[in-house]
Design a protein that fits this description.
The chain is α+β, with helices and mostly antiparallel strands. Helix content is 62%, strand content 7%. The protein has eleven helices and five strands; from the N terminus they run βαβββααααααααααβ. It has a five-stranded antiparallel sheet. Strand 3 and strand 4 form a beta hairpin. Helix 5 runs parallel beside helix 7 and helix 7 packs across helix 11. 39% of the residues are buried. About 6% of the residues have low confidence.
């Protein structure tokens, strides 16, 4: 049973963040002078419900203005405003939270499925913009990859509704999602080296990869295999870091400019540069946040916190958008 004392509302650190005594790195709050980790931010059921209404099909800031205030009652608007203020105080609103939530996510498979559908719809819109030869050769592979991810997440949605779902079923699903993650990793590695590179498509595949990774961690937590989730997070972090750290933004920009022809306009040059630098920056932010996830899992394993109960505690929180685990206690 998780100890109630390890959970905190985020307001405790507002004054430290505002004064500069503490800083937010990924999903970690650190003491500025010493670098000591004070707490780990984790989204709750309230934030997940709100995020389900945000355009989450790409890396982007939270974009609370997109929520459509007219669809909420007075109490919901008060909570939304409170959440927005909390996120602003924590300096998270400007972070490229995109699809994987605030820093990291252990969102349920139903939420992850909805996020995947947002990515898939954007990929489908790209199809008509790509050369026919590229579509014929590559599209079926991408389609199969997204279909595999969708089937796995739909299976997870069913398991979550079953009262008698077993840890073994969640572990098997984590393996299935791991296979999709590995397949996406192979595709991204190949795309970055080939003439078929398309930055928008590359971004969506990376997002799908991060989604499946997040869902696999969620499944292992549901099975109360916190140590296994920690080991998986460490392995994937090492692989991702080795791949993304080798990407040179300048080379990527020059490659796209050569591909666009010799008559590219200044505006096209600026657009390619902007999109490439934003992609690399956001991916690296997510990698930093994922390393924070490993620290969180390590903390949970050390305290012998039940993974399934931890997820239930987050999902049941409907007043605070974020909770924290005190890393020092």
């Amino acid at each position: 049973m998780p100890h109630a004392s390890i959970y905190m509302a985020p307001t405790q650190f507002h004054h430290m963040l505002d004064s500069g005594a503490a800083t937010l790195t990924g999903a970690l709050i650190k003491e500025t002078t010493s670098g000591r980790i004070l707490a780990h931010v984790q989204e709750t059921g309230l934030l997940q419900n709100m995020l389900s209404n945000v355009n989450i099909g790409s890396f982007s800031p939270l974009g609370m203005a997109q929520l459509g205030m007219d669809t909420y009652n007075t109490q919901q608007i008060k909570r939304l405003m409170s959440m927005t203020q909390t996120l602003t105080n924590l300096s998270i609103a400007g972070l490229g939270v995109g699809l994987v939530g605030v820093g990291i996510s252990v969102a349920g498979t139903a939420m992850t499925l909805k996020r995947l559908e947002a990515v898939k719809s954007q990929v489908s819109s790209l199809e008509i913009k790509l050369a026919q030869k590229f579509v014929d050769l590559e599209w079926r592979e991408y389609d199969r990859m997204f279909a595999s991810a969708k089937n796995a997440l739909e299976h997870g949605d069913v398991l979550a509704l079953q009262k008698n779902s077993s840890p073994a079923q969640w572990i098997d699903l984590a393996k299935e999602l791991g296979e999709v993650t590995n397949q996406a990793q192979i595709v991204t590695q190949r795309q970055i080296q080939e003439d078929s590179f398309h930055i928008d498509l590359f971004e969506k595949i990376v997002l799908m990869q991060l989604l499946c990774r997040s869902a696999a961690i969620h499944c292992l937590m549901k099975a109360n295999e916190v140590s296994a989730a920690l080991q998986r997070a460490k392995v994937i972090n090492t692989e991702h870091r080795a791949f993304f750290d080798k990407i040179d933004p300048s080379s990527l920009i020059n490659f796209q400019l050569r591909k666009s022809g010799i008559n590219q306009s200044r505006s096209l040059h600026l657009d390619i540069t902007r999109k490439t630098m934003a992609l690399i920056s956001n991916v690296r932010q997510q990698m930093n946040a994922a390393e924070g996830q490993a620290l969180l899992l390590q903390n949970l394993a050390f305290r012998k916190v039940d993974g399934s109960e931890y997820l239930a505690r987050l999902d049941a929180e409907k007043k605070e958008p974020l909770l924290m685990i005190n890393m020092a206690a």
